[in-house]
Amino acid sequence: MKRRSTSPEAHRTAPERVLVLWCPDWPVTAATRLHGLPPAAPIAVVESGAVLACSAAARAQGVKRGLRLREAQSRCPELLVHPYKADEDARAFEPVLAAIEEAVSGVQSLRPGVCVIRARGPARYYGSEEEAALWLLDHVDELGIPSSRVGVADGVFTALHAARAAKPQRLRIVAAGGSAEFLAPLPVAVLDDENLATLLRRLGVYTLADFAALSPGTVLDRFGPGGARLRALAAGLDSQPVLPRIRPEEFDTVVDFEPALDRVDQVAFGVRAAADRFVEGLVGAKLVCTALSVEVDSERGEHSERTWLHPRSFTASEVVDRVRWQLQGGSTETGLTSGVVRVRIVPAGVDSIGNHEAGLWGSGPDERVHHALSRLQSMLGHSAVVTAAVGGGRALAHRVTYTPWGERMLHPRPPERPWPGRLPPLAPSTVFEPPHPVTVFAASGTEVTVNERGALSAPLATLTGARGTLRVQAWAGPWTSDEHWWDADSASRSSRFQVVDSGGTAWLLSLRDQGWWIEGRYD
Amino acid sequence: MASAAVALDDSPIRESVSERARELQERILQLQAARPDTRSLPTHPAIAKLLPGGALRRGAVYSVQNSTTLIMALLAAPSAAGAWSGIVGVPEFGIEAARGFGIDLDRLALVPRPGDQWLAATAAIADVMGIVVTRPPQRASDSSVSRLAARLRQRGTTLIVIGAWPHSEAMLSLERADWHGIGDGHGHLAARQATVTVTSRTGQRPRSTRLWLPDASLQVRESPQQSPTPLRVTTQGSLRALHY
């Protein structure tokens, strides 16, 4: 903020001519384009319970930005509600930017739905600023984005408000040097600074003209550099330069199958060449892929998408493996029931190739281990080979996390927390998953229970399992834990016991869900 | 004075150079074909001295009868020394206990349920890892056993089998376990003394020793012959664990 406000005075006095394209209600347009919602329907995109953007049909029924969702639905019962996703918004805008870049260089995306172009080049090419703006509108209309608007003015701020003001004609050109005049009647709220706007209104400053009339020195003293910059904007002195984006290189690889293939090995064979191309393309750009997103489309329109991680970087054959595993996940994970028509491989994470070069002596034995385990995974399935880590938690099963080989380890429970109610440090060397049912009897022959206050009905005397009866020689417990009691679905209450049988073997028992279980053995 | 300063400046460089040279020499030694005297794997000294040859041999098979803790005690030293270990077909292997015994989880890979590919999975893992633990699903056929044994010898991988195995180098078992720290409704399992017996293939007399497995600080160590009487539980006779 400070650096901007102290940018060279030359920039501030002579803002360059820019062209701003504004697509109103972009979140709605993005949702209709990505999810195939009917554009004419009343649609609202909501974020944290409030309407963020709505379609024209919804607006006609009284829905507007900032309305609570319930209120919006009562005004328009047939409202299609869609949750706001920032990444989808940006993703949907990408083709628009790409289409404009094909004809005009130097496009800057201000936010999804709004982009800026330096006006000088297109104006010279198309003859005038108006011609250039009309061409831009036509071009965007061809992409199927309705009712976009263009503003041409000195500086981004003025041009954006010119686009907003271009209500009937969809185009508004503010002549060079006419910024201050154009901005003068606008209310101070357009500065997008709620606190400043409220304060200015209290001081009797209602329009941008009033604000611009204050002396820059006074504004700087009273409101600091941020306020001074807003005053400069209000006066039409926009110092923000256009920073054209660097066009991202395209590494996505798409393979279409015609006719559709319904066998995994056929698909794997079909993507092999594409995987080679994909990795070569990345290597050409001095990159390696560390995370990969595989999208598979089936004949019936089903879509499966999954991101795969790699501890180092993907080779071509590993890319093919990931496609195969995703398809083999089959009935559960991908849910594809018909032939595959399209596979798309997208690099979800890339890194400089310099960080992944093998040393002169090779990368040592770990490389061999990785290859062998990956080969085993392609034999047995991705999740058959795992690594383990110990995290926090109370129950034995919660403390250990298994991660398929090659994926990044994620700890669901932080190990450094105290976890009251966990067991003493000596852990059972054998952990039964799932636990085995058992019955525990007291000396009197009745089953042992624990009441709600954690008190034991009688000392433990014998264990009877599926394979015999053991006499209890020593026991300790209960260690009770009452987890998630506030949520009926995940609530679990258990009492754990350590028991040594007459043979000298120690067991870990737990009493939960009205039954006794053998959780582990200290053997 | 100046020369002293130079010497001071110089010494860390010289040290790092010599360190690097030593590292490279070690590497060259590793890369060279295994010589007879390098065909042993470091393991816990108390257990090692019972084993034939006084150490775990690379490329040999050991069978452990009834104790996962004993397996962990065998794995701990090689794992801490940088060997990779693989666990095939043992879904109930207690990860937390393994970490407690000093097995490095970063160099531990598990194939909990290899199904009918048990032999292929064991062989693939044995190709690259220093030490592999496996439980054969049923009695493995003689031909597959000898194929696997040949591969282990060639790669210098030690295999620890849970249960019986023909031609195993030695059979380890755990007996007469006495637990300490737990009473009749009080305390908790803190330490255990047990007798480890090693029966070797060569038909020598079985050798056994009394170990803390583990002691109160979760370490494995040899216990003096005249052990103090346990707090509560004293069990005599052989261990009769029910295999659930």
Describe it for me?
- The complex is a heterodimer of chains A (523) and B (244).
- Among the domains of chain A are: 15-24 and 88-177, 2-Layer Sandwich (Alpha-Beta Plaits); 253-354 and 369-375, DNA polymerase, Y-family, little finger domain (Dna Ligase, domain 1, 2-Layer Sandwich), CATH 3.30.1490.100; 385-422, no CATH class; 423-522, no CATH class.
- Helix content of chain A is 34%, strand content 28%.
- A 6-stranded antiparallel barrel of chain A has the order 15-16-17-18-19-20. Chain A has a 5-stranded mixed beta sheet with strand order 5-6-1-7-8, with helices on both faces.
- Chain A is elongated and about 100 Å long.
- With 523 residues, chain A is an alpha+beta fold.
- In chain A, helix 7 packs across helix 8 and helix 14 (264-284) runs antiparallel to helix 15 (316-328).
- The model of chain A is unreliable at 1-12 and 331-335 (pLDDT under 50).
- The longest helix of chain A is centred in the middle third of the chain and has 21 residues, at 264-284.
- In chain B, helix 5 packs parallel to helix 6.
- Residues 1-8, 33-37 and 226-244 of chain B have low confidence and may be disordered.
- By secondary structure, chain B is of the alpha/beta class.
- Chain B has a domain at 37-162: Rossmann fold (3-Layer(aba) Sandwich).
- Chain B is 32% helix and 25% strand.
- Chain B has a 9-stranded mixed beta sheet with strand order 5-4-6-7-3-8-9-10-11, with helices on both faces. In chain B, strands 1-2 form a two-stranded antiparallel ribbon.
- The relative contact order of chain B is 0.15.
- Chain B contains 6 helices and 11 strands.
- The chains are: A alpha+beta (523), B alpha/beta (244).
- At the A-B interface, helix 17, strand 13, strand 15, strand 17 and strand 20 of A face helix 3, helix 4, strand 5, helix 5 and strand 8 of B.
